[in-house]
C-alpha cells in the first residue's frame, strides 16, 4: 500500500469517528493514534484536499485555513473499507537503539547500559500511559461501539512496553557479563 493510501486511511478513519477540522484531525492523529501510528503533519492537509477532490470528504464552514470542518462521505466510508481490507504493509525497521547496540563494542559497555536504562524508563512511562488510556477509553460513552477495538490497540502497546522492559532487564544482565 502506497504511503498516500495509508495517509488517506488514517484521515478517513479519524473522520469516520466524527467530523473535525484539519487542526483537530492533526491533534487526533498525534494524540489518539500516535501510540501506534505516526503521520507527517505535512501530509494531512494535502490528503484532505485530495480526499475532497475525490468527493470522499466534504468541507463545511469557512474556507479560511483551520476553520473548515471535514466530514466523511458515503463514498469515503466505502473507500475506507477498501483501504482497511488491503494487506498490511510492514515497513522496514529503523531502530536507532538497535543500531547503536549492534555496534556496542565501539560505543562501549557503559554507553550501551545508559541507552538500555533509558529505553526501560521510556517503556515504564509508556506502560503507565497505556494503563491510563485504557481507563479513559473504557469510560467513554460517546464511542462505546469503538471501545473494544480501541482497547485492542492499547493492549498491543502495553504488551510492547512490557516486552521492552523484560528485554531491557535481560540486556542489563548481559552487559554486566560483558563488563566482567
From TrEMBL:
Domain of life: Bacteria
Domain Transcription regulator PadR C-terminal: residue ranges: 94-176
InterPro entries: Tscrpt_reg_PadR_C, Tscrpt_reg_PadR_N, WH-like_DNA-bd_sf, WH_DNA-bd_sf
Limits of the Transcription regulator PadR N-terminal domain: 11-82
Name the UniProt record assigns to this protein: PadR family transcriptional regulator
Amino acid at each position: 500500500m502506497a504511503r498516500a493510501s495509508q495517509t488517506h486511511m488514517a484521515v478517513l478513519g479519524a473522520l469516520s469517528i466524527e467530523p473535525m477540522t484539519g487542526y483537530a484531525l492533526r491533534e487526533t492523529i498525534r494524540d489518539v493514534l500516535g501510540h501506534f501510528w505516526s503521520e507527517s503533519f505535512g501530509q494531512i492537509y494535502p490528503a484532505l484536499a485530495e480526499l475532497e477532490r475525490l468527493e470522499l470528504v466534504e468541507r463545511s464552514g469557512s474556507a479560511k485555513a483551520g476553520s473548515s470542518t471535514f466530514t466523511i462521505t458515503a463514498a469515503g466510508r466505502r473507500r475506507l473499507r477498501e483501504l482497511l481490507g488491503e494487506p498490511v504493509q510492514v515497513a522496514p525497521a529503523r531502530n536507532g537503539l538497535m543500531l547503536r547496540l549492534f555496534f556496542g563494542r565501539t560505543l562501549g559497555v557503559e554507553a550501551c547500559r545508559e541507552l538500555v536504562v533509558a529505553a526501560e524508563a521510556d517503556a515504564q512511562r509508556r506502560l503507565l500511559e497505556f494503563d491510563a488510556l485504557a481507563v479513559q477509553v473504557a469510560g467513554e460513552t460517546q464511542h462505546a461501539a469503538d471501545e473494544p477495538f480501541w482497547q485492542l490497540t492499547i493492549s498491543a502497546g502495553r504488551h510492547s512496553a512490557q516486552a521492552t522492559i523484560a528485554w531491557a532487564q535481560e540486556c542489563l544482565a548481559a552487559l554486566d557479563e560483558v563488563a566482567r
